[in-house]
Design brief:
There is one protein chain. By secondary structure, the chain is of the alpha/beta class. The protein has two domains: 151 residues, Quinone Oxidoreductase, Chain A, domain 1, CATH 3.90.180; 151 residues, Rossmann fold (3-Layer(aba) Sandwich). The chain has nine helices and 15 strands. The longest helix has 14 residues. Bound molecules: NADPH dihydro-nicotinamide-adenine-dinucleotide phosphate. The site of NADPH dihydro-nicotinamide-adenine-dinucleotide phosphate has 34 residues, from helix 1, helix 2, helix 3, helix 6 and helix 9. The site of NADPH dihydro-nicotinamide-adenine-dinucleotide phosphate (NDP) has 34 residues, from helix 1, helix 2, helix 3, helix 6 and helix 9.
């Protein structure tokens, strides 16, 4: 095999506070050759996820990504070589390939993808965030038709799907985002009943007005002050789906909280439950079948936010944490096919 240059983004330093480009550096190396049972994957698309920032700090479900490591990230790529791995060259896979053009990976660490429509779907609505929305809402939140579902980071990859699934299920849906432009997308394109801005000085009043009958299910993507406010609007026997804490990732010192726990949980008999999408791996096919049908019949719209070029990955992650993205943020690393 001819030698392949492998551009990669390394972690240069562990952030002490807000993430900046100085925490990364780009370098060119040489792509490895697959050993027995391994594949060489060419990255096509890179998923930019809030959790990327949390992995740099540690205290998550995976090992901390440290200075000197290739930055970790979920990749959708093409298998360009294999060595007895049983995965065909030319097939697409998703894998923890990192922020680089090529990755050598053991076959058991790649998941073959049966492509339906655009490749981008497989990092978004048919990927981790779509499945997170599906299982988090239906299995953890368990909404009933007619109930009010509140979701934060509602114009993001997970939140935009949560809100639409709740609408399809017959719920009243209220979104929280950080901008009026995003809220316009939610109400005019995605069928949310209302959307409010967490940056507004009148946020608590806006929340009360948008949820006149209280909140039955709060799908929490952000934690922090939005969770504090939502807790106060929960109805008796309400459910809080703890999906993520993006308001607390971009710091070495997350705030204490939430305020009101356990008092409000007791008096309102709330169920507050965390989950990881990986818990549902055995049921992905069920989730994918439903999501694919809703996309096919036009009731579920995917919002996509594609940034061009691997070198822009650090800026893409910083922008995501600042709320720049509308929909699933992806970095295009290379063409679908060479
Ligand atoms: P998004 O596409 O939603 O992007 C993140 C969004 O968070 C930003 O666009 C921004 O939008 C919002 N945000 C950032 N800072 C704040 C803040 N301080 N307060 C309120 N909102 C803020 O990302 P994902 O859909 O990929 O992830 C959403 C959440 O789901 C994350 O917490 C992530 O870790 C979690 N997650 C959990 C999984 C699991 O298995 N439990 C799996 C996948 C994701 P804006 O402020 O404009 O609303």
């Amino acid at each position: 095999m001819a030698e392949l240059t492998n551009r990669r983004i390394m972690v240069a330093a562990t952030p002490e506070g807000e993430l900046s480009e100085s925490h990364f550096r780009a370098e060119d190396g040489v792509a490895g050759e697959p050993g027995p049972g391994e594949v060489l994957v060419r990255s096509v698309l890179l998923s930019i996820d809030p959790a990327n920032r949390a992995w740099l700090q540690g205290r998550t479900y995976r090992e901390q990504v440290r200075p000197g490591d290739v930055m970790a990230g979920l990749v959708l790529g093409e298998v360009v070589a294999e060595n007895g791995a049983g995965i065909p060259v030319g097939g697409y896979v998703t894998a923890d390939g990192g922020w680089q053009q090529y990755a050598v990976l053991p076959a058991k660490r790649v998941a073959p993808v049966e492509v339906v429509g655009d490749l981008t779907h497989h990092l978004g609505v048919f990927g981790m965030t779509g499945l997170t929305a599906y299982f988090g809402l239906f299995d953890v939140g368990r909404p009933a038709a007619g109930e009010t579902v509140l979701v934060s980071a509602a114009a993001g990859a997970t939140g935009s799907v949560v809100g639409q699934l709740a609408r399809i299920h017959g719920c009243r849906v209220v979104g929280v985002t950080g901008s009026a432009a995003k809220n316009e997308v939610l109400t005019s394109r995605l069928g949310f009943d209302a959307a409010i801005d967490h940056r507004s000085p009148t946020f608590a009043d806006d929340l009360r007005e948008a949820c006149p009958n209280g909140v039955d299910v709060y799908f929490d993507n952000v934690g922090g002050p939005v969770l504090d406010a939502a807790l106060r609007r929960m109805n008796t026997h309400g459910r809080i789906v703890c999906c993520g804490v993006v308001s607390q990732y971009d710091t070495a010192a997350p705030a204490a909280g939430p305020d009101g726990v356990p008092g409000l949980v007791v008096t309102k008999r709330l169920r507050m439950e965390g989950f990881l999408v990986f818990d549902y791996a055995k049921r992905y096919a069920e989730g994918l079948a439903s999501l694919a049908e809703w996309v096919r019949n036009g009731s579920l719209i995917e919002l996509l936010d594609v940034v061009e070029g691997l070198d822009n990955a650090p800026r893409a992650l910083m922008g995501l944490l600042a709320g720049e993205n509308v929909g699933k943020r992806i970095v295009r690393v290379g063409p679908d096919r060479l």
